[in-house]
Amino acid sequence: MVRSIIARAATVLTLAMAVIGQASAAHATDAAKPPLDVLGTLKAELDYRQRTWYLTARGEESESGFTGVDGSSSVTLFGNATPEGYSNVKDSLRISFDVLLMEGALVARNVAIRYTPANLANPYTAQRESVTRLRVDHVEMTDDTLIVSGSFHSELDFQPGLNMLLGGNLSPTGGAGLIAGALTEGERKTRDLVDGQFIAEIPRKR
User: Fold this and answer.
1) For the stretch 60-69, what's the b/e string if a residue is b when 16 or more beta carbons lie within 10 angstroms of its beta carbon?
2) pLDDT over threshold 90, residue 115
3) pLDDT at 99 > cutoff 80
4) Closest to 79 measured CA to CA, from 34, 132, 40, 136
5) Of 46, 88, 112, 186, which is most buried with the most CB atoms under 10 A?
6) How far apart are CA 137 and CA 106, in angstroms?
7) Residue 98: CB partners within 8 Å, gap ≥ 6?
8) How many whole angstroms separate alpha carbon 105 and alpha carbon 20?
9) What is the maximum span of the chain, computed from C-alpha positions, in angstroms?
10) What is the pLDDT of residues 38-82, one digit of tens each?
11) Which of 11-20, 48-57, 84-93 has the lowest mean pLDDT?
């Protein structure tokens, strides 16, 4: 009887130490990560609400960035819902475009805007060029960074994606990866209006 109690106690202690070890390792991993830096913001009225999204970086890594040379660049601005977010798809706003210097004026081409309320199965995207406008007010480039600011406006159409392929049966809480947190029928709308400004200092993509 005594041996049985001692054996059980030893098992509980071993399990407790394993949990503590895992928690300590996770904490150490988080502590070892570089702190997040805010590179800029996307401020917009979306569905008649004023919102702010944050462009973040961890060390030299960021979902936002640019490629190209002075006078011809491709820009990606990935906005997280909070300044503590990094590459969080849920509730994110992503804008990408090419900016060209033509006859002394800044011209935006190939504009893409995506708002993802839940996951990549349910994005709202700018599908119609006739109602999508993006203006670049300022661009300043160095070897490794690009300072860019401007404004944007569009009507974002719901893209059913995986939700339609699976008959609209994705659970709003179940699943994992891309389908976790999918929108239910009641949460879906056909279209959202977005109107806002951006300002950021983003790194060159390697």
Assistant:
1) eebbbbbebe
2) yes
3) yes
4) 40
5) 46
6) 7
7) 68, 72, 73, 74, 75, 108, 109, 110
8) 60
9) 91
10) 999 999 999 889 999 999 999 989 999 999 999 999 999 999 999
11) 11-20
Q: Report in angstroms the alpha-carbon separations of 66 from 141, 151, 174.
A: 10, 17, 35
Cα–Cα distance measured from residue 152 to residue 194, given in angstroms and rounded to the nearest whole number: 8
Q: What is the pLDDT of residue 173?
A: 33
Kindly state the percentage of the chain with pLDDT values over 70: 70
Q: For 47, list phi and psi in degrees, rounded to 5.
A: 55, 40
Per-residue HEC secondary structure of 88-102 comes to: CCCCEEEEEEEEEEE
Distance (Å, whole) CA 130 – CA 134: 12
- Report the alpha-carbon distance of residue 118 to residue 71 in Å, rounded: 36
Beta strands in the chain (DSSP E): 36-46, 49-58, 61-62, 65-69, 72-79, 92-102, 105-116, 124-126, 133-141, 145-158, 191-203
CA distances to 7, 58, 115, 119, 141 from 193, rounded to whole Å, are 64, 31, 10, 19, 31
What digits encode the pLDDT tens for the residues 117-174? 987 777 899 988 889 999 999 999 998 999 999 999 999 998 876 454 444 443 333 3
Considering just the CA atoms, what is the radius of gyration of the chain in Å? 22
Q: What is the pTM of this model?
A: 0.74
How many CB atoms are closer than 10 A to CB 46? Answer: 19
